[in-house]
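Revision sheet: structure tokens.
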Amino acid sequence: MSTALLVVQVLNGLQLGLLLFLIAAGLTLVFGIMGCINLAHGVQYMIGAYLAVQFYAWTEHFGLTILLALATALLLGLLLEIVVFRRLYERDHLDQVLATFGIILFVNEAVKVIWGPVPLSLPAPELLSGSFVLMDGLLYPTYRLAILAAGLLVALLLWLVVMRTRVGMRLRAGATHPQIVSALGVDIGRLFMLVFAFGAMLAGFAGALAAPILSVEPGMGDNLLIVAFVVIIIGGIGSIKGAFFAALLVGLVDTLGRSLATDVLKLAFAPATANQIGPALASMLIYILMAAILWVRPTGLFGARTS
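Predicted:
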């Protein structure tokens, strides 16, 4: 592989990692702090992409489209928490899995009714539609660099909120000692509602950012949900820092693995065998990585140690 192609694949891996972080951050907060398994988190990513397409059709302004998509995803998250999820917090995980799987089926069919089954697209903003010169003879889309910058900015802001604000302190305390925090006058129910809605907004933001580079279609978040669960398990359930580093690691391993697995196997196997085994191995790499990390550290990279 040439140096230029390697640089492009690394940037693509980091971009995928940051999109995964935006999805996994809300998922790890809901799962780690609220103890609720939300399989419907992927449809919130999909809804964000569809909202971006719809709002751009109405406004033809990309910045306004993102703001409207964020606000609507937040409101839909609040509605979903009030109508469905607050009735699931005290139920067992099987009930949560069944209920959220039902939400996946309902929302996937709803978007087909509203927008149709045909994939949609969203143009990148004109300001970011060009390419950036990384090195001689190597251009990289400016919009993809903007996704990198946006993901890093959100990661920094989220870390500051969780680790350096009173709200973040209440979140961390509510995750470990909800009864004590409630006795001190903090409304745990309202806190959990805000956490869920904020997680839905982050997933919607990821979908809106991805809409110009991916096809917007029903079920687009289902596969990413599985990878997002891999991210939060590797990083440590409930850890924002863990979700960030694990998402970057998974993004790089997945992207570089799909590009390099076949070439590496050709060093030990015949080309025909390597071509057959390589794609299958590449698709398994993130799960092999997860198993290896859990073997060494069962709570994940940044999960709380257990005695």
